[in-house]
Design a protein that fits this description.
With 312 residues, the chain is of the alpha/beta class. It is 44% helix and 15% strand. The chain contains twelve helices and 14 strands. It is globular. Bound molecules: (3R)-3-hydroxy-L-norvaline (VAH). This is NAD-dependent epimerase.
Length: 312
């Protein structure tokens, strides 16, 4: 059976749905610090769990005979700048909990998300390589860089089968993101439909690597199902699909909503975004486990607007 920590978050919600569809609801235990949507709570086993509490996780792992853990609980980049020590505690101690469960052979496979936030201001910005300078300047990025080092260490020293991808900004409609710098790319669709206008907290030319959630979920499960012999990276894989700036996503929306207007009011998140790459080289993921994205900006916009209209 599988345990998802942080199952009520932006990625966790969709991973829970997909993994339950694939492996059967009873084989996927969802957990979070608070309860989730009615549909999530009704669709299979759920446990209230604090991902920083080792004994609580261990109890759930033993009770359900869990063998795989997806650790999706974290504090994201914008919020982490406001609460550095809480972010470090959550992001790192939750990882140590699952790595140590695997080291003690209580579970035998882990997925842990890294992020383009591991890169910093002096990292090459275009086609950022798998191996390059990484001096992250955000609390969240520091926690992700450190987490990658620990994952690789536990793989090399203790044979822990931990797998990871560096997610770009993720765009989805089922669950709002919480406290990220790329959240503008989700909010903008909601506001375009609700108000026809949006005030963007990044400037119009801030180009960032982005991905539609369906691609991100497929990549995550695809990596977890890959032959371990083929995996040459045990820190975290670069993962790419598209890159765009607020002005491009605005133009994409205007093809459906011609009168849509965006104003720009950069806030503290501009500095975070400026420290990140503009595009990612994911050759290694393509080579090791046949990664291939399916959504570009216009197909993402079509999916987002269609689904938000249906569910609003
Ligand atoms: C954030 N959505 O903005 C997350 C992600 C690459 C960005 O890590 O913090």
């Amino acid at each position: 059976p599988i345990l998802i920590l942080g199952a009520c978050g932006q990625i966790g919600t969709e991973l829970t749905i997909e993994l339950r569809a694939k492996y059967g609801s009873e084989n996927v235990v969802a957990s979070d610090i608070r309860e989730g949507s009615e549909s999530l709570m009704a669709s299979g086993p759920f446990e209230l769990l604090d991902a920083t509490n080792y004994e609580a996780i261990e109890d759930v792992v033993m009770h359900y005979e869990i063998d795989e853990v997806y650790l999706m609980a974290a504090m994201l980049s914008a919020t982490a700048e406001k609460f550095p020590m809480r972010a470090w505690n959550l992001n790192m101690n939750s990882l140590f909990n699952v790595l140590n469960l695997a080291k003690d052979r209580k579970i035998n496979k882990i997925f842990w998300p890294s992020s383009i936030a591991v890169f910093g201001p002096n990292t090459p910005k275009e086609h950022t390589p798998q191996n390059t300078i990484m001096e992250p300047s955000t609390v969240y990025g520091i926690s992700k860089q450190s987490g990658e080092r620990w994952c690789e260490y536990y793989f090399n020293k203790f044979g822990v089968d931990v797998r990871s991808v560096r997610y770009p900004g993720l765009i989805s409609w089922k669950t709002m993101p919480g406290g990220g710098t790329t959240d503008y790319a989700v909010e903008i669709y909601h506001e375009a439909l609700k108000k026809g206008t949006y005030s963007c907290f990044l400037n119009e030319s801030t180009k960032l690597p982005m991905m539609y959630m369906d691609d991100a979920i497929r990549a995550t499960i695809g990596l977890m199902e890959s032959d371990p012999e083929k995996l040459s990276v045990r820190s975290s894989y670069n993962l790419g699909s598209m890159s765009f700036a607020p002005k491009e996503i605005t133009q994409s929306i205007q093809k459906h909503i011609p009168g849509f207007k965006v104003t720009y009011a950069p806030d503290f998140r501009q500095e975070i975004a400026d420290s990140w790459p503009s595009s990612i080289d994911d050759t290694t993921a393509k080579k090791d486990w046949n990664w291939k994205p399916a959504f570009d900006l216009d197909s993402t916009t079509g999916e987002m607007l269609d689904n938000l209209k249906k569910t609003s």
